[in-house]
Amino acid sequence: MGLRMKFNLVLSFTSLIGLLAAGLFTYNALQKNAREEILESARIMMESAVAVRGYTVSEIRPLLAVQQRRQFMPQSVPAYAATRYVSEFRKNYPEFSYKEATLNPTNPADRAVGWEADVVSWFRDHPDEKELIGERMTPTGRALYMGHPIQITDEKCLVCHSTPAEAPPTLIETYGDDNGFGWKMNEIIGAQIVQVPMSLPLQRARSALITFMGSLIVAFLLVALLLNIMLHKIVIKPVQALSAKADAMSMGTQNVEELEVVGNDEMAALARSFNRMHRSLDSAMKMLDDGTVLRRE
After folding, report:
1. How many whole angstroms separate alpha carbon 120 and alpha carbon 116?
2. Which of 42, 240, 246, 288 could form a disulfide with 196 if both were Cys (CB 3.0 to 4.6 A apart)?
3. What is the pTM of this model?
4. Other CB atoms within 10 Å distance of the CB of residue 220
5. pLDDT class for 51, splitting at 50, 70, 90?
6. How far apart are CA 195 and CA 146, in angstroms?
7. Which CATH number fits domain 207-296: 1.20.1330, 1.10.150, 1.10.3470, 1.10.287?
8. 268-271: which pairs have CB atoms within 8 A and are 24 or more residues apart?
9. Is the pLDDT of residue 254 over 80?
């Protein structure tokens, strides 16, 4: 096995290890960044819904107080306002979703079902936790969900949700008296749940990884080519010349020219040493020949 082959095998092995290490590190970093991007989208959506709820309570509900006596106005309900806001948003981004999932809601559309009920139950079992983040599979791919507990902290909420007798008549006329009652102070009755698709950020992360690894492989190939050129010029070619001179001298060839010495590196030092050996050997051979001639005379 030649020196060039040994060098390229070592270079290929170390390059492969470097590529694997760089790919693993980059993959983890890109996945982390993609998840942070998804979380940021979920937080923005959640905070937007919270802002709409606050605006409804402070600005819209007082304006509709009089109309509520004659007809129930769902626009005065924070959950309705937030849900309507997100429904308009989802016209352009249908993969996103928001729901105020409740175990015993006044509006049946808000009832927690399946995994949503599990989120609410988790908050009930962990009353000190204010956020739950997880992943689930959807028909459109993986999605990240973020949940915040809905807890009764304002006694005004119990006016509509304690008992049917205390609820506004217009509310009973709209939704009936079977659901949305029996709530208690400090009880966790549901959860705000935002769901954000993970497919696009993860796809961008994979594309970035492929681009980076492709660029890295091209860079390694260019470096390997450059190193091979330098290896041939600096090491292999001088060694081949040295080997050819040594073969010629070992075969008894006369008047072998000395090696050309260029530079002050190790190969130049080796060439100078070889030339000194060549001169010493040549002198010894001449002395030996002269001694043989004298003895014959």
Report:
1. 6
2. 42
3. 0.69
4. 18
5. very high
6. 7
7. 1.10.287
8. 270/238, 270/242, 271/238, 271/242
9. no
